[in-house]
Amino acid sequence: MAPLVWLVTGCSSGFGNQFVHSILARGDRVVATARDLSKIQHLNQLGVPTFQLDITDSQAFINATISKVLAEYGRIDVLINNAAYIAIGTWEDLSYEDWLAQFDTNVFGTIKVTKALLPHFRERKKGTMVFISSLSGWIGHAGCSAYAGSKFALEGIVEGLHAETAHLGLKTLLIEPGRFRTNLLSSSSMKSRPSDIPEYAERSRAQMEGLAGEDQNQPGDPVKLVEIVLDLVRGEGVAQGMEVPFRLPLGVDCYTDVKEKCEATLATLETWKNVTRSTDIETQK
């Protein structure tokens, strides 16, 4: 296979940083981006071009950045939409601005970066778009409603994108990690609103302590996830000879929880089948 050119968002840490190193190890080329360019400039020593890209900027600014990348490097074969963060807090404790900020990064920022590259992919009739979703795209946990909402939204819009662009020769992958040892829960990445509302305060305190204890103790290995994604894109390793799925949960916890939700949903559909199917307008005889 000829070397691919990848563009990755959110490369300052976690999955994004690992993608850069794993892509290079496969012999491909990668363009690394981050909101704060100073946090990824060390990648220049590896021969990796770096660009400042805040995905919450305007569509015009993002378009200009992508155009600059294409002008300098000729093409992009694979887009990894990785940049995201998690907001923690109850519905009552999170402000409207907190909700807007969560969706601005996790949903609308992802839309803008993808829109900026879609004409390039469409004109070439090839390209792969990878979206890093989450177990929270399946399950809304208490105190994580904003994050889950953003990931549920991402799941729907990416599924629609897949349906719109598959006939153009474009590939779409939706990756759903469980709990992986990234910086997602670190104090520098997570934005939390501890509750002082009496009915929520104790549970909020316990959640904050639990998340702090889980940080850097998650069971998932980011290296293994990234290597699987590269296999899926390149048709190697675990993907060799396999039909690559559009959506793939990754992580033992993700497998267990998604399976449980699917089974519960099927059980509900069967139990309530007659009611569910009773809503059509009666035809007159």
Overall description:
This protein has 285 residues and is α/β, with parallel strands linked by helices. The chain has one domain (5-253): Rossmann fold (3-Layer(aba) Sandwich). 46% of the residues lie in helices and 14% in strands. It has 8 helices and 9 strands. It has helices at 14-25, 59-73, 96-124, 145-165, 198-214, 222-234, 252-271, 273-276, and strands at 5-8, 29-34, 50-52, 78-81, 87-88, 127-132, 170-177, 191-192, 247-250. The strands form 2 sheets. A 7-stranded parallel β-sheet has the order 3-2-1-4-6-7-9, sandwiched between helices. Strand 1, helix 1 and strand 2 form a beta-alpha-beta unit. Helix 2 runs parallel beside helix 3 and helix 3 (96-124) packs parallel to helix 4. The longest helix is centred in the middle third of the chain and has 29 residues, at 96-124. The relative contact order is 0.12. The mean pLDDT is 94. GO terms for molecular function: oxidoreductase activity. Pfam families: adh_short. Keywords: NADP, Oxidoreductase. Belongs to the short-chain dehydrogenases/reductases (SDR) family. This is NAD(P)-binding protein.
* Strand ordering within the main sheet: 3-2-1-4-6-7-9
The total strand number stands at 9
Q: Based on CA inertia axes, which overall geometry fits?
A: globular
Count helical runs: 8
CATH class: Alpha Beta
Major sheet summary line: 7 strands, parallel
CATH architecture annotation: 3-Layer(aba) Sandwich
End-to-end separation in angstroms reads 64 Å
